[in-house]
UniProtKB/TrEMBL annotation:
Keywords: ATP-binding, GTP-binding, Nucleotide-binding, Nucleotidyltransferase, Transferase. The keyword Cytoplasm does not apply. This is sulfate adenylyltransferase. Residues 11-231 form the Tr-type G domain. Pfam families: GTP-eEF1A_C, GTP_EFTU. CDD domains: CysN_ATPS, CysN_NodQ_II, CysN_NoDQ_III. Its EC number is 2.7.7.4. The keyword Transferase applies. It comes from Cellulomonas avistercoris.
Amino acid sequence: MVAAAGDHAQRDLLRLATAGSVDDGKSTLIGRLLYDTKSVLADQLSAVERATAARGGEGGGVDLALLTDGLRAEREQGITIDVAYRYFSTARRAFVLADTPGHVQYTRNMVTGASTAELAIVLVDARKGVLEQTRRHAALTALLGVPHVVLAVNKMDLVGFDEATFRSIAREFADYAQVLGLPTVHAVPLSALDGDNVVDRSPRAPWYDGPTLLELLESVPVARDASTEPLRLPVQYVIRPRTPEHPDYRGYAGRVASGVVRVGDEVRVLPSGRTSHVVGLDTFDGPLDAADAPRSVTVRLADDLDVARGDVLVPAGERVATGQDLVGTVCWLTERRSVPGARVLVRIGTRTVRGLLREVDARLDVDTLTVEQWDPVDTQHTIDATDTSTDAAPRSLGLNAIGRVRLRLAEPVVLDDYATHRRTGGFLVVDPADGSTLAAGMLGATLLDRLAPVRPDERDDDWMAGAGI
């Protein structure tokens, strides 16, 4: 049953992402979900029908993968390249869905799509079983801390809905998931092409008595409610209109990342550490007594503090880590290799600060779940960042690599653990020369750190004296 658009605000929102190997049927499965929940507009369906006919489709069928493979290159090659976001809803829940690429070349895009997901659907072709790329995406799902996982054993129609095949794949994946530390995995036998066990239960698998995929999506507990977490409000803009109507107005605009801010609350501004109390909360629609995540709001404080873009409002009584030394796990997003000692920009929350890439001290092999650890290097001797040959910079990170980095920042920032603060515990590493994103990272312990704990840093804290940081 499809709910009216006006009911969206009354229901839970689940963010989910697909993952798996090439040709496992991710885009078709997403198209099937959209089609069977009647979330496809008539003009969209007509466009897909025309595109299907242009590709030689016969019998009036519709290639549902085209509902998500929106780029021309994707349609021509029959693979997903970019992350495609789709929105749909049922009577019980609203969904934001990311169809992420399965090709190893686009692993970085899977990281982007799953970084905000609360549930991951990992697809497996029933004929092929668990493949290397399936394991890679499962490892990334664990790395990103996605709390719920559904194993969709697709194309069961091509193996005659054989129960033994399904059970074998489910056991193999469950064993691997246990090594990764993933939560309980729900396995579903289905056919995205025909719709078996996607929205409606299939008579072709009478031996399966579990829920359909949509029933799982509607019933899985939504991750932590951001409004119940400690307050984090990154300041995006300082509002000083200085008009005759508002000559002394000073407000700090931002989106509540987590928690609730109320009029009268005592808050602390980080990283300065100064405190004040909230005297007003303003929005376009008028003043509020309280604002919870993810509402955008302008906060007025009782005192004229030095607050700027990038500062974070937190509860006055909470101990929050801040500092200039950042240790985190990153996925390297560019063909230019990491360079020890390179000058970079680090974007964390709404704050952008200068920094140096102190070192990469570990690299994760997501296929074998082993970690290569390296000793400290002399950061005064850098490596050519434009050299992408295989024999250059062997102790660096290349495209799609997962590793642990140490960064020294020019200014202190809030250092929230990603595991407990997904909305403020992530960061980006940016090339200051052209603004391109070099890496996306997570603060605090991750799968990589569980496999290879951080070693004590015995070096002199003044190692970058004279470096301009």
